[in-house]
Amino acid sequence: MTRSRSDKPVPPQDERGFFAESRPSGALPAVGEPRSADAPHYLGHRDRLRTRFAEGGHASLADYELLELLLYRSIPRSDTKPVAKALLQTFGSLAEIFRAPPALLQRVKGVGPSVALDLALVGAATERMLRAEVKGREVLGSWRQVLGYCRTAMAFEAREQFRILFLDKKNGLLADEIQQTGTVDHTPVYPREVVRRAIELSATAVILVHNHPSGDPTPSRADIEMTKLVAEAAKSVGITVHDHIIVGRNGHASLKGLGLL
User: Fold this and answer.
1) Which long-range contacts (CB under 8 A, 24 or more apart) does 34-38 make?
2) Most distant CA pair in the chain: distance in Å?
3) Is 239 left (phi over 0), alpha (psi -120 to 50) or beta?
4) Are residues 154 and 101 both part of a single domain?
5) Which residues pair with 181 in a beta bridge?
6) What is the rounded distance in angstroms from the CA atom of residue 35 to the CA atom of residue 37?
7) Adjacent-strand bridge partners of 163
8) Residue ranges in the chain assigned as alpha helix (H)
9) Is there a single domain that holds both residue 146 and residue 120?
């Protein structure tokens, strides 16, 4: 830690300060107020984006512009357009940015630990919001919300995860659990463990979910065979497997919808 001339400790800077331009003395002008001639060029641009968002909502902004506004909350005194465009170019979409591991986010110029954490928090908040929309509802009657939640939670993971949605007798969501995490193309699944956990929770039905990190949700032969084994084991104790959903960046597949369950 460095010390100033007065020998008082000077706290280290993160990217919020490191990438920020020097701030003129006094507070920045409010939206709509005239800017001084030497004010940073991006301030007027930021005001225009804020006005467009306030008047037209998110539909009035491109993805990179929405990301600019969000990044401005994390890096308030910097031009965030280059960072926003670099993130989208690297990860491809807002969904992949918000689900990316912080270590990967920090490979993008202008993104340090604090900004990476802020982006991860947006992803976590979105997942919690979508989970809240599903929990307590009759799941089979809220299929779009279920798919949206599963895609947000799993589609952009770098490794396969096997998730189970446990349902009560009214098909309400009792629990949502990740049972196994595997490699980039395989997750071990044990039918006895699926059934054991369902019995512990007094579930009468389950929905199986897993992701394909490759992006292609097409079920493999192993996926189909595993689903049949779990369905048979569950049926023997009166538990129904409603579906097995596979999610990926390029969409989703329903084994029931494909006539494979």
Assistant:
1) none
2) 77
3) beta
4) no
5) 161
6) 6
7) 178, 209
8) 15-18, 42-56, 63-74, 81-91, 94-99, 102-105, 113-134, 143-154, 191-200, 221-235
9) no
Alpha helices in 173-219 (DSSP H): 191-200
pTM of the prediction?
A: 0.59
Domain count of the fold of the chain: 2
196-206 pLDDT per residue, tens: 999 999 999 99
Rounded to an integer, what distance in angstroms lies between the CA atom of residue 161 and that of residue 30?
A: 47
**3-state class (DSSP) for residue 14:** coil
3-state helix, strand, coil in the chain (%, to 5): 45, 15, 40
Whole domain around residue 44: which residue ranges?
Answer: 15-125
Are 119 and 148 found together in one domain?
A: no
Q: Residue 224 corresponds to which tokens in the numbers above?
A: 């189909």
What is the signed CA dihedral for 129, 173, 198, 216, rounded to 10 degrees?
A: -60
Which tens digit of pLDDT belongs to each residue from 187-197?
788 899 999 99
Q: What is the pLDDT of residues 115-164, one digit of tens each?
A: 988 888 888 888 787 777 666 666 667 788 888 888 888 887 888 989 99
Residue 105 Cα distances to 100, 101, 119, 193, angstroms? 7, 6, 9, 35
Are residue 224 and residue 153 in the same domain, yes or no?
yes
Residues 166, 140 contacting (CB under 8 angstroms): no
Asked if 108 and 146 sit in the same domain, the reply is no
For every residue of 97-139, DSSP letters joined together read: HHHS-HHHHTTSTT--HHHHHHHHHHHHHHHHHHHHHHTTSBG
Strand order in the sheet with 205-211: 173-181, 161-167, 205-211, 240-248, 251-254
